Known about the structure:
Chain A is an alpha/beta fold. Helices cover about 30% and strands about 15% of the residues of chain A. Chain A is globular, with a radius of gyration of 25 Å. By secondary structure, chain B is mostly beta strands. In chain B, about 5% of the residues lie in helices and about 50% in strands. Chain B has one helix at about 1-20, and strands at about 30-35, 40, 50-55, 60-65, 70-75, 80-85, 90-95, 100-105, 110-115, 120-125, 130-140, 145-150, 155-160, 165-170, 175-180, 185-190, 195-200, 205-210, 215-220, 240, 245-250, 255-260, 265-270, 275-280, 290-295, 300-305, 310-315, 320-325. Chain B has a four-stranded antiparallel sheet with strand order 3-2-1-28, with no helix packed on it. In chain B, strand 22 and strand 23 (about 265-270) form a beta hairpin. Chain B is globular. The interface of A and B includes residues 35, 43, 108, 320 and 377 of A. Strand 1 (about 40) of chain A pairs antiparallel with strand 15 (about 175-180) of chain B.
Amino acid sequence: MIKWLLKHTPQSFRVGAKRRARNPGQLAHVALDSGLAPLARPGMTAVGLSAVLLILSFPLVPMAAEKMVIGYVDQVDDPRHEDRTGFGGILLEQRGRAYDGAKLAMGDLSMVGRALDIEFELVEGRAEAPDAIGAAANKLRNERGARFILIDAAADALIAAKRGTPDALLFNIAADADALRGADCQPHLMHLFPSLAMRTDALVQFIVARKWRDILVLEGPDVQDREAVRALEHSAKRFGARIVSKRPFVLGSDPRERDQNNLALLTTGSYDVVFVADESREVARFLPYQTLSPRPIIGAAGLTAEAWHWAWDRDGGANLSRRFKRLAQRPMRGEDWAAWIGVKAIIEAVMRTRTTEFAKVSGHLKSGDFRVDGSKGQALTFRPWDNQLRQPIQLATTDAVIAQAPFPQFLHRTENLDTLGADRPDTTCRFPAGSPNR
Amino acid sequence: MRRFAKSVLAVVLLALGIHNSLAKDTGRIFVSNEKSNTVTVLDGKTYAPVATVRTGKRPRDIKLSADRTRLYVACGDDNRIDVIDVAKLAVVDSIRGIDEPEVFDLGPGDRQMFVSNEDDGELSIIDLQTKKVTKSIKVGGEPEGVMVSLDGATVYVASEAASLVHVVDVASGTIKADIPVGSRPRRFAQSPDGKEVWVSAEVEGTVYVIDAARNAVANKIEFQPRGFRRDDIRPVGLKLTRDGATAYVTLGAANRVAVVDARTKEVRDYILVGSRPWDLTLSRDESRLFVANGASDDITLIDAKVGKVIRSVPVGRSPHSVAIDD
């Protein structure tokens, strides 16, 4: 009875109901029939008014509106959330928690909750250390009922988290390790952030399309630098570029090591382009204009491959980055975009399936019918063989997106986005038999 | 004597006013250029440029007032609506303080303007007499397309981020329905009897036809020009003929305009135009169709009766919308 009365009550009079809902847009209105019927709200009536009075005079009764909890887990004081600074404390890049990206999507899509009569809620879990990420995810699963959980963590923590939260779908928003999409892949781990291979494939497509085929590789001392070079080597082979020389570098000015710390000596020889792998950025950011030959730089400086760059001004990109900046007080980065598209993908799947049922929503996300708009032009989908979100990669300088890969010179027989990262025939991911993937 | 001088002045002013109104029906074509911050004015017969009017930053949607003496221009990056005097071909007024206006529509009698504010996620209602925002209504993220129903009682707003069409009751200023449609809904058109509301879903690559009486989706139109993959089809602009028989839909990345039988919802033809066509406009007699090609800085002129391109005309950088004073 009360629900019926609520249905016939104008929104502005639903004071009592608002107290119970987190958001006035998430109240029950009219039950939806299947298909694409909308939500109709009848005008104010005397019945409506008396209904409000009736409700206000009775103890509050829980609403029948369906609720869906989206989880978000990251680590307290994660160094990756700190601003990137150079020597002397110079601010090189503002960074922060990608949680703001998830929050932005909740706001963008709040009206969907109203239209579907489903209350979406974003809840966060903070881990004290990387090895507590899994426990935090499991806690959201058990205590808050979150079965779709975004995770901002490194590859190892993600794998452990997936093991500890078996009946939830986890979304990787920050780890680019190719192994997560290969040997270490998991059927219930989705990847919103592009893999390292997708990003080096994008860079190599770009240079080969311009016939800059000869690459000089400068490799830094970090583990990530070694990984980046490995990915580049694979991309070069895939698209027909040549690595003419691979030289390790070190930070320093010791004259005995000058073949490894002097930028001019490091860049002798003949090549079209320099690829620099430098997680620290302390060599890469000084490389442009200091090469012995006048050649462009790609990789960690010059032209970089990004999931999202704030200078993207097409497909609603400028608008998205501006909304994010208003909310987070800093420019939008790839991880922020990944968190934003994660919440958007989950709500999109609920919107299309008209249910919050875990199996149906996760099944739809992985199906060929699922498509989501990421403000990068075309619709985005998940690869069934490794759960990676297909997406264009932005190639950017400090203040401009020069191009968005893939490029028309590298067409694919069915899906051009599959020229970036592990394609079906190349994947080393083997989901266990009976897993929900196609 | 002084009184006489005053009345002479009044007569002269009146005559000037009449002169201004005579400037109507010039046949001129107005094109907003998003990246040049101008409106290009073309002669309606020769298509030669008549004038280039400087506007605020990022001029996007443009619409003529009902009496066609003024052209309203939404200047997104300057947060204002410029008003161009169609006779003088100059900006004579501005409505300021409108957050990031993108697309707008005018209510009956030009009393009210309905504007989507991209950044704030709102629909603003502006009183055109006082030039003040009288109401802002919260809608889904990134609202774009705005259309007033024929009877003026309802406004439709498309939220690109939330994939919803909001049905706004003008009298009460409240949303009376939210209709889920395909990914990234952009622009609207309505059938001449007002029974159908068409909305393009850019990223899904479709057009939804909404039954206006039920506020429910009645049809979905898909496009398959030869040699294109699904993701190259990105419908944006829509126009229906007055007899309700034909719809024209621009397909963005597919560089084509689809010609749709508006009654059967079947696609009859695809016409090759310039690069990334979005907005399009029909001449009053519906013999000519003008298409703004955002990525080739020109407009394509189509003979609408035979569905053939007549010519293309260069305009400014990134043409957004077209209006014709005919």
